[in-house]
Structures are given as C-alpha cells and as structure tokens.
Amino acid sequence: MFDRTDLRAAVEAGAISQEAASRLEAFLTNRGDPRGTADPESLRFLANFNDIFLTIGVGILAIGLTALTGIIFGPTASTVTQGSLSVASALVLLPVAGIMWLLLEYFCARRRLLLPSMALASIFALYVGLAGGLLVSGITNVQDVRIDSFFDAWGTLGEAGIATFLVAAAAAGALYARFKLPFALFLIAGALALAAYTFAGFFGDIGMVIGGFGAFMVGLITLAVAIAFDATDPARATRRSDNAFWLHLAAAPQIILGIRGMISGSTLTNPGPAEAVLILLVLVAFGVLSLALNRRALIVSGLLTFALALTTIVSSLGGGVTTTLIVTTLLLGVGILLLGGGWKTARRALLTVLPNGGLAGRLFPPEPA
Q1: Which of 177, 240, 328, 333 matches a 20 to 30 Å C-alpha distance to 101?
Q2: What DSSP line would sit under 1-48, residue for residue?
C-alpha cells in the first residue's frame, strides 16, 4: 500500500517520471482507492505523536542551550569584544544555531521527521538572524551615546532591524539549499516581508504598511511565486507542490491584511458598512481563486477579516450585540461547513467555466470524479 507521498518520493528519486506518477495516480483514483486521492494540502509534516514529543524537546533544548552558552561563553565573549553587549550576545547565539544545524542533519537529512525539522529550522534562522542584527548594531554603534540626533539613532536601529531579517532569510535559504525543506521557503518569505516592512517604517513611508498597500504588494509577489511552483507541478506530485503550499500560507494573510487596509484606510481600524460590503466582495473573489487553485490558504486567512466585515454589516442593519453575534457565527459556520464538505463538488462546478488547457490547465488542476 502507498499514498501520494510515496509517489512524490519516487518522482524525486528518479524511479518514475512525473507523467508516469500522474497516470498511476489517475489509475488509483479510477479504482476508487482512497490512498490514491490524497489532498494536495495534506499535512504531511505530522506523522504521529512522537513528532510532537520531539518538537517539544527541541524547544526545551534550545532554551537550555541558550542559557548554558550564555553562562559559559558570555563573560569570555564580552571580554573579547571589549564590552560590546551586542557582539557578545551574537557570539552566544551562534553556537546554539550551530547545534540546531547538526540536529537537522540527523532529523531532517537522515530521518526526514518534518515537524521537529521545522522547529529546528525556525530556531536556526531566528538565532542566526538575531546574531546578524546584533553584530550590525554593535558595528554601527546603535547603543553609542555619542549619536548626534534622534534621527541618527532611528536610522541605525533600522539598519540593524533590516540586517536581522535579511540574515534570517539567508539562513533559511541555506537550509533550503541543504535540506530541500519546503517550510524553509515560508521562513524566507516571512523574513523578507519583515525586512520590507522595516525598511518602509524606518526609511520609507510607514503609511505604505499601515495603509495596506505594502502588505498587499509583498503578499502578491509571494503569491505569484507560489503559483509559479504550482504551474510547474500540475499533478501536485513533487516537492514543488509542498513549496507552493508554504508560500501560499505566507502570502495569504498579507494579501488579506493589505486589502483590508487599502479599503478601510488603515489595517488598524474596522471598516464601515460600505467598506465592509466591498471587503466581503473581494474576499469572495479570492475564495473563488483559492477554490480554482485547490488551495484553502486564502480562505482560511480571510476568515477573521470576513467575520469582522460581516459583523459590521449585520450591526449596521439594526442587529444588537447578541443578534449580530448569533447571525455572524451561524452564517460563517454554515458557510465553512458547506464549502469544506462540498469542496470537491464546488471545484468541479467551477472548473467547467474555466479554461482547461495551456497555463490555466496547469494552474487549475482537474478534480477527479
């Protein structure tokens, strides 16, 4: 017995071609074999409870190692760096990051335990990124009292912040290059997005972020890369489909937050009735796109915004607090259950009005009967 994960592994190992894998999957589907109809968004990173157990251990170990390296190397690092707290802190973090990499060589490269590997990758990228930011802050004298003006300090802090996220993105890139871990692309996308927002806040126009346009554009670029991965794997039979999944997950909340900000004027305020209606219409359009792509990330990421907009509309029609809560939760809950339970049926209906050849056929994979 085997499932879609085995097919992907066989394609990546060169045992069979992607075309052969697609034909085999179609054959299993026609036979009604449930193992051959796995969803492309199956959460393959959780095999059993032991993965959760190991992941908890990774988190606890990282805390302990950080404290230990601080005690062992902290005084020496401070002496070597001539009292520079930032540089000394960076030298304390880097050994822990090195141990995380070594553990990745075992848990990811050798045993392919994805959930513990994701935790290890997150800690590695975080610690390396923080170390990079601390080194920049030490080199550029962020804490130097001789900075002439507030704006000098502001700009220097900005440089350190951007360095933190850019170094974290580079660290995640190294993880992807070595281990081909799809989750690393999520870390790369998130770190680059935070670098862009930091740049807008310190050196550009923070209104680009608060107003939603910056978040929307960053999310849109991430979504375009995710769709490009999907286009190269219409059968969703290789690791490229997993790459796309994590990029969709990174793109969706930024797009939704950006849309909300651009319509409402700020990501920090709730929309008015007219704005709420427009937000609902846009979210429905993105829901249709998510359905066509067979990716639920856009829908899930928009649930909170959808609920807030729906609450505003119901309230504006005269509903009190209790009535608004009841109506909103009922409509939202029923809608999710209907769409989740009838996802495949809804996709088949939608695909009948979409082109099924060329690039469109690669982006919008067919739904087996």
Answers
A1: 240
A2: ---HHHHHHHHHTTSS-HHHHHHHHHHHHHTT-GGG---TT--TT--S
